[in-house]
User: Which sequence fits this backbone?
RNA sequence: GGCCCUAUCGUCUAGUGGUUAGGACGCCAGGUUUUCAUCCUGGAAACCGGAGUUCGAUUCUCCGUAGGGCUACCA
């Protein structure tokens, strides 16, 4: 049975990079009909908060990644928060085992002593390894220090020789020399387990079969593998994903603008579009097609087509893809989706214009939208107040020819039987009558009836605001001369 | 400094021991459209460098270089 886990740390909002890891992990599991476990790695009490945990849940849900086991779903390998696992004594049990087998030992060095060691090693160009001073303590000395209440950590004793060799699902063969790795802390002085230890215990206890995570964890492999070995367990399969970078090729972070998933949601990105885009960042199926549904991606996904090189997150392309999704949606879905982002005030104002006004207006500006929130910019033209309209008009100068065009158009436009088509036909007549170019006819009409030089198709616009408004505005402009 | 990973248009990527090195975003030009947008057509744009292997390397090997990661009582 394939069991994967997604293990975010609630020390910040759900990040695009973290989401991509979750996505690939999820895709792998769903592709192979496996189980997805969500585990919250909140051993860092200082930085973790439930607010961030909630944001992570929210982001995953919006994006469309579900999990079979987790803090909210429960499951037979719970609890699924490391903080709760600490309370349950899960880690201390394993610590005892390691202590008893000689794979771990108490360490009483202070932070200052350790940094002196480290600086000395750095200065001589030797890779730093803990001196193992604590290992020279006799059992009696250790007990005495413990009894005296001295602060301590527990370190894992790395093997002095041998290599960790494994085959990465994404990168192929990888090897590390164990003798270069320092003994590392597995239990901090506050009694909580460190990451490299907790992760192993949990992956083992939760029977995780495949670990898919970011490349930043590759260097942790020899440490984690050594703990697995010391516990007499076999290593799960591992796949390390390339990182997502900002435009400056540095690891994606806050200074690159929006990085939290809920921010993308709030800006009006449609989650299936983000899903599609992110799936193609570091992975590609065969062929040239770029648009895939979630189900298609699940059935196509495979770790051996995951890229090895880091990828820059291109917001331009995401935005383009989002616009494509908006245009490809069926009308009902499009309206439902866009309505969630339409300002209530703007919505009410448009609805006042008539029964189908809202629907027509939303459709009229569809081609202009990239993100859902754009509707509030492009939709405003439909509900300009008279005052706003007049002040827009005041900025525009109409020539005699323009006024002639407007006058002719006003004469042709009839309130009876008005439609988008009759509006267009009316403009065509003016075109013929005057013999002017398209621009010389259409632009002044657009300016006169909308007060701006860009916007939705005028026939659509007229249908929404009503022929009376159009006629009134034509007359208004004509009357100014 | 040490260790690990990586390297195809500006960006995301496909691909191959012999290809006009393909697609997409962006950019430029033209067209459709009433303007903008959409849409259509076309264009510019890449195999990091040096050795080696080979009849032939972008592709395989090595060495550089560059970028990224790790080197914590963060995860």
Assistant:
């Amino acid at each position: 049975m394939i069991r994967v886990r997604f293990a975010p740390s609630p020390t910040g909002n759900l990040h695009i990079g973290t989401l991509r890891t979750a996505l690939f992990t999820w895709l792998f599991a769903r592709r192979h009909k496996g189980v997805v476990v969500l585990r919250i790695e909140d051993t860092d009490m200082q930085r973790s908060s439930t607010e961030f945990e909630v944001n992570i849940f929210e982001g995953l849900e919006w994006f469309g990644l579900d999990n079979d086991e987790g803090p909210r779903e429960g499951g037979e390998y719970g609890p699924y928060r490391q903080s709760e696992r600490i309370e349950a004594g899960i880690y201390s049990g394993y610590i005892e085992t390691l202590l008893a087998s000689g794979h771990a030992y108490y360490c009483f060095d202070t932070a200052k002593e350790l940094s002196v060691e480290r600086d000395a090693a750095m200065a001589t160009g030797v890779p730093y390894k803990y001196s193992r001073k604590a290992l020279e303590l006799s059992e009696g000395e250790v007990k005495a220090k413990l009894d005296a209440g001295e602060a301590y950590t527990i370190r894992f004793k790395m093997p002095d020789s041998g290599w960790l060799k494994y085959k990465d699902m994404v990168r192929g063969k990888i090897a590390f020399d164990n003798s270069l790795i320092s003994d590392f802390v597995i239990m901090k002085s506050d009694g909580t387990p460190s990451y490299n230890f907790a992760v192993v215990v949990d992956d083992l206890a939760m029977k995780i079969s495949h670990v898919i995570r970011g490349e930043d964890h590759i260097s942790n492999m020899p440490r984690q593998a050594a703990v697995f070995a010391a516990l007499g367990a076999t290593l799960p399969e591992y796949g390390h994903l390339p990182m997502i970078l900002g435009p400056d090729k540095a690891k994606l972070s806050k200074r690159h603008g929006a990085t939290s998933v809920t921010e993308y949601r709030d800006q009006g990105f449609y989650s299936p579009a983000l899903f599609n885009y992110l799936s193609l960042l570091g992975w590609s199926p065969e062929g040239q097609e770029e648009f895939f549904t979630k189900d298609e991606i699940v059935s196509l996904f495979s770790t051996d087509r995951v890229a090895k090189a880091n990828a820059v997150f291109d917001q331009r392309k995401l935005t383009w893809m989002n616009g494509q999704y908006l245009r490809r949606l069926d009308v009902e879905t499009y309206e439902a989706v866009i309505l969630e982002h339409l300002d209530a005030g703007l919505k009410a104002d448009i609805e006042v214009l008539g029964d189908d006004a809202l629907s027509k207006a939303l459709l009229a500006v569809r081609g202009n939208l990239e993100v859902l929130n754009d509707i509030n910019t492009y939709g405003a033209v439909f509900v300009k107040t008279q005052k706003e309209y007049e002040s827009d008009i005041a900025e525009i100068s109409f020539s005699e020819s323009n006024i002639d065009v407007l006058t002719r158009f006003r004469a042709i436009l009839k309130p009876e039987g008005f439609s988008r088509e009759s509006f267009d036909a009316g403009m065509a007549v003016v075109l013929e009558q005057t013999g002017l170019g398209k621009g010389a006819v259409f632009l002044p009409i657009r300016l006169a009836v909308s007060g701006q030089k860009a916007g939705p198709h005028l026939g659509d616009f007229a249908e929404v605001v009503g022929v009376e408004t159009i006629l009134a505005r034509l007359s208004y402009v004509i009357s100014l001369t």
The first helix of chain A runs from residue 16 to 31. The first strand of chain A starts at residue 3 and ends at 6.
